[in-house]
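User: tokens in, sequence out, please.
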């Protein structure tokens, strides 16, 4: 096993810090986008990939706590990716809190500080709980039969009357049932009158 020199270790650390900062910026920006567009699968895929990269980089340079939190985020984003759970404002807020915690740990790593942010254990547990949840099923659409019946109720009912009978009817000036009206449909091939009830 090759042992890195002090200068190589420093270079590796600085490379990690630079890339971690970029990853965290991408995560934060992506989560803001996701808050406005919860169904944006491209953004979810990007967030997943970045979390995975951050996890691997942190593990390689020896920051297990950063790697673990990034891994828990990755698991949650995987559930969003496969549709097991859906994006909610609460979920985005939780992920943003994770990004803040990761940024604090990266900042501490830059200062050679091993201190961990307060509430880290509770945050990891909240992420695991969210990942273990199930998606709320969408409300079932109204049956087509019900919609058709409702539409049919509003349609006018018509009575077809032959012209001869109509002539006698009009001459006698018979009253029509309440709510009815007379109208002639000249397009009717049988030259009939329609008395519509509404």
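Assistant: Sequence out:
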């Amino acid at each position: 096993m090759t042992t890195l020199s002090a200068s190589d270790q420093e270079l590796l650390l600085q490379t990690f810090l630079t890339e971690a900062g970029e990853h965290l910026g991408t995560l934060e920006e992506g989560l803001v986008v996701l808050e406005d567009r919860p169904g944006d699968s491209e953004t979810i895929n990007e967030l997943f990939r970045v979390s995975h990269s951050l996890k691997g980089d942190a593990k390689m340079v020896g920051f297990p706590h950063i790697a673990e939190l990034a891994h828990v985020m990755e698991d949650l984003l995987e559930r969003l990716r496969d549709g097991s759970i859906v994006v909610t404002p609460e979920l985005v807020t939780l992920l943003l809190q994770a990004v803040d915690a990761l940024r604090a740990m990266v900042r501490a790593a830059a200062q050679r500080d091993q201190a961990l942010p307060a509430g880290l254990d509770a945050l990891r547990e909240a992420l695991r709980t969210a990942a273990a949840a199930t998606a709320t099923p969408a409300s079932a659409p109204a049956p087509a039969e019900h919609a058709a019946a409702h539409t049919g109720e509003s349609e006018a009912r018509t009575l077809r009357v032959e012209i001869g009978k109509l002539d006698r009817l009009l001459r006698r000036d018979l009253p029509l049932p309440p709510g009815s009206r007379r109208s002639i449909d000249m397009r009717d091939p049988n030259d009939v009158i329609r008395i519509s009830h509404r």
